[in-house]
Design a protein that fits this description.
The chain has 85 residues and is mainly alpha-helical. The chain has one domain (2-84). It is 76% helix and 5% strand. The protein has a two-stranded antiparallel ribbon with strand order 1-2. α1 (2-21) crosses α2, α1 packs across α3 (60-84) and α2 crosses α3. The termini are far apart.
Length: 85
Amino acid sequence: MWGLVISLIMAIVIGFIGDALADNTMPGGIIGAAAAGLAGAWVGNMLLGSFGPNIAGFAIIPAVLGTAIFVLVLGFIAKLFRSAA
């Protein structure tokens, strides 16, 4: 049970850090940050591997960088849809 709580807290923290690196383009507040943190940790692990400090199953450096990449791509796609409408 505590592992799940710690993982969600880490996803939220990683999501907010990645969002700040990507110029705050992620909507959704704390839920959006958690979703971006989980997706970004997966993207970072796939692209960069698992290195650096590891907390609650998250390799911190690849997770933060993956979240920043995820938020940038998501923001770019949102801008394309806004300009097309």
